[in-house]
Please model this.
Amino acid sequence: MSGPFLRKLEGFAAFSLDEQQALERVSSDVVDRRAGEDLIREGERPKFVHILLEGWAFRYKLLLGGGRQIMAYLIPGDLCDLHIFVLKRMDHSIGLLSDAKIALVPEKAVLALLDGYPGIARALFWATLVDEATLREWLANSLRRPPLERIAHLFCELSMRMNAVDLVQGRTFNLPLTQAELGDTIGLNAVTVNRALQRLRAEGLIELDRKQLTVVDVERLKALSGFDPNYLHLDQAATSS
Model:
């Protein structure tokens, strides 16, 4: 088995051939979905765990007055709703930013995987912990950092996450986000987002063209935003083996 789902989980554990085959079986029912669709809406009860194999998705909540808060970006390899069988209803929605391939995993298959393969269960547990740590970092980013640092920090994170699943070419990766979506993520209006992006370009830190982001100077971008990748736990497999 290959692909971003395995590469993501291998960041947390080293798998045997049997475990790799189990992951391949559980992610074999694949459907195509279109950009702009919701995988699941707030208040619904999903019948499947969704694994994002290709494309981008995002967690969000709609606010009174029509506003929207984006709370997470999901990239290839991410599980969208691992604990659906614990919750009676979803407390947020998951939408698609791009066309996507989604693996649909029934609840029984998830439980069998957790019960039968402790190594996989530990990796999924770590993935959930990283999701929680990332949300904490996003809260600090949106509430405490100036606008330029917010965007720089987000770009550092996304670059590292995409690189971890081998989806960065050189220093460039797909970033299917509009300025409005960036604003909904970090609590800024479109004018402020545009000014921050222009400054990052002018200072030679990034290039952003046709939904392709190039991080020109990684170390300077990290220094500008105070980015520390510790919360992503990308070296967990090495430390736990």
